[in-house]
Specification:
Elements: E1 7-9, H1 15-21, H2 26-32, E2 34-38, H3 40-49, E3 54-60, H4 61-66, H5 68-79, E4 83-87, H6 89-95, E5 104-109, E6 115-116, H7 120-123, E7 129-133, H8 138-150, E8 155-159, H9 167-173, E9 182-185, H10 188-197, E10 202-205, E11 212-213, E12 224-227, H11 236-241, E13 244-247, H12 259-275
Parallel strand pairs: 1-4, 3-4, 6-9, 7-8, 7-12, 8-9, 10-12, 10-13, 11-13
Antiparallel strand pairs: 2-5, 3-5
Helix pairs in contact: 1-6, 3-5, 8-9, 8-12
Length: 276
Amino acid sequence: MREWRADYLSSRSNPRVAAAAKLADKKERERQAAFLAEGIKLAREALSSAPRFVKEIFVSESAAETSEGVRALALEAAEAGVRVTLLSEPAFEKISTEKSPEGVIAAVGYLTELHVRGDLSRWQENKRLLMLDEIRDPGNLGTILRSAEALGVHGVILSRCADLYQPKVVRAAMGTLFRLPVFLTDDGEAAAQALKAAGRRVLAASLGEHALTLGSYEIKESDCPVIGNEGHGLSTAMLESASASVRIPMSGGTESLNAAAAAACFLWEYARREAN
């Protein structure tokens, strides 16, 4: 294997190590406009799908010595012009948020061309959509984004959700963040109104008395399902902003599904109908 060259940092107090470690904090992520993608798969996804946003690759000294996969990734990054930095174990451990780190972490700039705010009326054109409102659990958010990409969604609207670049979101999304267009808003009700003005049906996942039943109404490609908060679902204002409510048929004594499971049910039904 060809060799790769890297800086070597041994101290946990080195300014570059300290700056990267601070990316575990949301305010610091926003200040630096960067986040961490840990592990071989996520670092490679970043290099493959968003190479110009990758600021630096950190590699632990032990992984560089023992892992052919880590060495290959470091070479790939170096050949792409990305800075590769070799860290002592204490320095690497200061940055990592994983319980069992693989020895490689990518520092990635905010994906500002893929994850946007602004004019929803233009952004939503020609996209199959999903909206998430107040999804607070990072694992749920990342899982839903991964399911959305897998089941043919072209863009996800996030209203008042967990931070998109939180480490647990990045980990659960498994690379989807580097490919899936996301529209960020603090006003889900206004977003719903804009979608309806564009001719879409906004379908709120809810157990309302007059809710439609998933699988029993005519599917339209332009429909935008909305999944709400894990604990209290969608707010009254959000429900009133939607075109209609839709419930997922369930048996037994179960009253509701986990947000990620509910999203998967909607997305599968739409993907299945579209395939047929």
